Amino acid sequence: MALEELIGGLPAYAKDLKLNYSSLVKQNTELTKQQLWGTVVSAAIATRNPELTAAVIAESEANGLNAGALDAAKAAAAIMGMNNVYYRFHHLTSNEKYATLPARLRMNALRGHSVEHVDFELWCLAVSAVNACGKCVDSHEQVLRQKGATEELINAAIRVTSVIHAIGVVLDSEKASPTPAA
């Protein structure tokens, strides 16, 4: 299903999401096209909603996200899917010894992508926000600011992420809800 159809088919209680999608994605002026659509892709993947993810990937290609950037957004979602679990565990456990142990996790995707580092870091931050990993959010936000990203740019990406995540939640909720009898 096309993304516009998916958004248009959201139930009445999700009207705010439709409006926010329109203003934050369709009318975005704060992020470059690549930053925007890479954020939308990585956030959609992090929602784990296959219908939303498929529609977003198709729409991102139609909006000029090239194959290299699409792969990088997918790589950001993949690597952060792993790192967010690992580092969130460190945050949640009271046993401080885990923080002294080596991760021994391959993370070549953090350097082996073909996009601007700021863009890749934005996508890692977006996925980390969805996955609620405080350590990763803090780390990627600091790297972004060190590389010259403003708080306004970072905030714009996280606002987009929050709307995409919420759309995934609504789609999952609607699939799980019983259909009313006619």
Describe the structure.
With 182 residues, this protein is mainly alpha-helical. The protein has a single domain, classed as AhpD-like. Helix content is 69%, strand content 0%. The protein contains eight helices and no strands. The protein is globular and about 50 Å long. This is Alkyl hydroperoxide reductase AhpD. It comes from Edaphobacter aggregans. Pfam families: CMD.
Question: What's the short story on this structure?
Answer:
Helix content is about 70%, strand content about 0%. The protein has about 180 residues and is mainly α. The longest helix is centred in the middle third of the chain and has 26 residues, at about 65-90.
Low-confidence stretches: none
Rg computed from alpha carbons, rounded to a whole number of angstroms: 17 Å
The CATH topology, please?
Answer: AhpD-like
Alpha plus pi helix count: 8
Strand content: under 5%
Main sheet summary: none
Query: What class would the helix/strand composition place it in?
Result: mainly alpha
Report helical residue fraction: 55-70%
Q: Could you name the CATH class?
A: Mainly Alpha
- Coarse morphology: globular
First and last CA, distance? 25 Å
User: How would you name the CATH homologous superfamily?
Assistant: AhpD-like
Mean pLDDT rating: 94
Tally of separate domains: 1
Name the CATH architecture.
Up-down Bundle
Order of helix and strand elements from N to C terminus: HHHHHHHH
Count of DSSP E strands?
0
Protein name: Alkyl hydroperoxide reductase AhpD
Disulfide bonds: 133-136
GO molecular function, one term: disulfide oxidoreductase activity
Keywords: Antioxidant, Disulfide bond, Oxidoreductase, Peroxidase, Redox-active center
